[in-house]
Amino acid sequence: MTIVLTPVWSNGVQKLKVTSAPPAKLAHGLTPPMLDDAVHAQRCLAQLRSKDKNIEKYIYLSQLKDADPNMFYRLCLTNMAEFTPLIYTPTVGDACIQYSHIYRRPEGLFISIKDKGRIGQILRNWPRKNEARISVVTDGSRILGLGDLGVNGMPISIGKLSLYVAGAGIRPESTIPICLDLGTDTQRYLDDPLYLGLRQKRVPMAVMDEFMDEFMGEMAKAFPKLLIQFEDFATDKAFAYLDRFRDRYPLFNDDIQGTGAVVLSGFINAAKLSSAASGRPLSDHRILFLGAGSAGVGVAMQLQSFFMLQGLSKEEARSRIYLVDSQGLVFDGRGPMAEHKKYFSRKDYNGPALTNLTEIIKFIKPTALMGLSTTKGAFNQSVIEAMSALNPRPIIFPLSNPVRLSECEFHEAVEWSKGNVLFASGSPFPEQDYNGRTLYPGQGNNMYIFPGLGLGAILSRASAVTDSMVEASSLGLAESLTPDERADDLLYPRIERIREISADIALAVIRAAQKAGVDRSADLRRKSDAELLAFVKERMWNP
Ligand SMILES: NC(=O)C1=CN([C@@H]2O[C@H](COP(=O)(O)OP(=O)(O)OC[C@H]3O[C@@H](n4cnc5c(N)ncnc54)[C@H](O)[C@@H]3O)[C@@H](O)[C@H]2O)C=CC1
Ligand SMILES: CC(=O)C(=O)O
Ligand SMILES: [Mg+2]
């Protein structure tokens, strides 16, 4: 039996009718005589590549995914480096901005503040309740670095879930993209006649708290085996809802924890190369963050474990990390600050405000610079030259998305550091030839982590996602570089190996869940590592 979703109009509003269709007979004559599968794959690729604009490619691919998911995922897996920037960052950013204009058909669940009091009823409209295993939930309040996009944030949930399917073999039917509509504070959407969301400002936090309590409770009832990934909530909400729900439900926040894990992993590999060049011990690194939002502070929290793995105490680890926000260096003497910045706020500086990044670098002498500030060009020539003067191999990670908000581009970092930079960015950049050598940029994006972390949590039936599971995903990724990849100074594995990497990460996550006692698949405890890895790979869906 096949589930058929048909859009129907009722009182001027589109609804989805859910019906079950009997399996269609393979009727002769309804397809062309020479429709060969392999040739059709070539045809689809040619159709995709014939489009000039990436947004047109995005639309083509989302229609292909709907019409022929097997073909979509097959092409995705065999052309990962080409597809990822189209279905994910940077193109998904444009798709979000324009979502209300390019919208074709429903692809996920929309739950609005007007549904408060009957959220459970709405969730039960989802057609494949028993199969639901993973949901990416956004409220659209901070999509990539693009700000409050309201319900136009839906493509980020869809894009992340496509990567779960492609990257970790989660079954497509097990995924639920969700966009919550709590209003938007972006006036151009409120004024846009095509905008698909509620035409109202965002509700106050206290109202949202009540809504979220109902939403999470009803999600657990409707989908008892579901893992939830919170995505692209504005920083205050990101921290507040992770804190509020993480002990009650299996969930993680991708921007805080997934980003923390992916950057820790790339940093471990970069620090080894940097220390090999400088002769300084790993425990001597100092990390400066530009940007102190959910991503900046999430990554800073996770990077403490790098120092603790070198034998430093938590307090010593914290002292190796410096935050800079839009007002400059974050220090106690500066005055009142948001709660999430307090932990890393410096107690050992009490001079005048330090606002110039190059001056701050000369003062602090960091070995690594992390950009999560949404500020294009913030890592300019003077900044990168200051880092290069201090370090034979400076670590420079401009992690803001999409590409046009990146703190610097790869070719700039290569040129200004004279080819010595150890680089990873949030969105992809092309490789560079420098003095007869090919240099490869890393992509420090949580897309390397969440598919494997999610798969591990799902297969172990984890009742919670612990810090130890997140750290295990990071170490699993750091260790997954092949000798060839290390020879090229790569900080992250090649994306074409994502399935293999996700399996390794899932194995590490399952073991961490078992150690923490949050696993509910007791039989997996009896398997050896080799048996468990084989089990993980067997469970992966293949197109
Ligand atoms: N590479 C990856 O995997 C990920 C990247 N990100 C990116 O990180 C960026 C930040 O995300 P959030 O932390 O959630 O946003 P946010 O808006 O909460 O934080 C931005 C931070 O940057 C600071 N900032 C803004 N302008 C600045 C300036 N001119 N100088 C210094 N600091 C400045 C702000 O004070 C704030 O602390 C986004 O672009 C997002 O796409 C987020 C998650 C994952
Ligand atoms: C990659 C990601 O999660 C972000 O930029 O928000
Ligand atoms: Mg995100």
Automatic annotation (TrEMBL):
GO MF term set: malate dehydrogenase (decarboxylating) (NAD+) activity; metal ion binding; NAD binding
Cofactor note: Divalent metal cations. Prefers magnesium or manganese.
Coiled coil spans: none
Keywords (A to Z) from UniProt: Metal-binding, Oxidoreductase
InterPro entries associated with the record: Aminoacid_DH-like_N_sf, Malic_enzyme_CS, Malic_N_dom, Malic_N_dom_sf, Malic_NAD-bd, Malic_OxRdtase, NAD(P)-bd_dom_sf
Keyword Methyltransferase: no
Active site residues per record: Y88, K160
Pfam families: malic, Malic_M
Protein's organism: Dichomitus squalens
One annotated GO biological process: malate metabolic process
Residues noted as binding a divalent metal cation in the record, renumbered to the chain: E231, D232, D255
Domain of life where this protein originates: Eukaryota
UniProt record similarity statement: Belongs to the malic enzymes family.
Cofactor(s) listed in the protein's UniProt record: Mn(2+); Mg(2+)
PANTHER family: MALIC ENZYME-RELATED, NADP-DEPENDENT MALIC ENZYME
Binding, (S)-malate: R142, N401, N445
GO cellular component: mitochondrion
Protein's recorded name: Malic enzyme
